Amino acid sequence: MWRRALTPSLSAALGRRTFNSDVASRTRRHVIAALVVNQAGTLAEIANLLSARGYNIDSLVVGRTDAPELSRMSIVVHGTDENVWNMKKQLEDVVQVAAVKILTAQEHASDNLIERDLMLAKVSTRQTGSRGEVIELASLFDAKVLDVTPTQLMVQLAGTPTRIESFLELLKPHGIVEIHRSGVIAMDRLISVTDTTVEIAFDRHPKEVEDVDTTMLPPG
């Protein structure tokens, strides 16, 4: 069998394709929470930092906290664990950032946090029977009907991003006139004070977390 030798340029192209495929397989969704100083220009500086580094931001939400001088920022980003860890370090270097936490640092990340998104949507009801069907769908998803006109309904749904996406897919056949989503806010679940392994996973690089020797733990 005759085989043609690969040219250097073709070999390099194949190498890049393999590398990109490997990176894509390790990319996953991450949620980052940050406490920032509540002053003018903070959001712009952080947004410019993330944009300059080329991070793929899905959602960025900022809101007030119980402390007037601080705001809480929730960032949803797709990337590898290494990229997100670097992003955390870069955010910590910003003067206006008080604290940063990766809420999805562990495996089974969806079990470690609670996240909510808020959606408002105007749906057409011009088709025969559409009004009743939209109201029934809203009831099934625990959504609220906020406004009614002869040709449209406005509905509100608060829930996980996945639940909202499922609701929107069912509304599409009726005709979505307008939609607005607030973006994701998230908090980690309540953790027992004795569960030190979880705290370590949040505060350290994934590669730095060592396996816990269960023989060294107290009974129970």
TrEMBL record:
PROSITE patterns: ACT. GO terms for cellular component: cytosol. Pathway: Amino-acid biosynthesis; L-valine biosynthesis; L-valine from pyruvate: step 1/4; Amino-acid biosynthesis; L-isoleucine biosynthesis; L-isoleucine from 2-oxobutanoate: step 1/4. Keywords: Amino-acid biosynthesis, Branched-chain amino acid biosynthesis. One of its GO terms (biological process) is L-valine biosynthetic process. GO terms for molecular function: acetolactate synthase activity; acetolactate synthase regulator activity. The keyword Amino-acid biosynthesis applies. CDD domains: ACT_AHAS. Gene3D superfamilies: 3.30.70.260, ACT-like. Chain A, domain 2. Residues 31-105 form the ACT domain. InterPro entries: Acetalactate_synth_ssu, Acetolactate_synth/TF_NikR_C, Acetolactate_synth_ssu_C, ACT-like_dom_sf, ACT_dom, AHAS_ACT, AHAS_small-like_ACT. PANTHER family: ACETOLACTATE SYNTHASE SMALL SUBUNIT, ACETOLACTATE SYNTHASE SMALL SUBUNIT 1, CHLOROPLASTIC. Belongs to the acetolactate synthase small subunit family. This is ACT domain-containing protein.
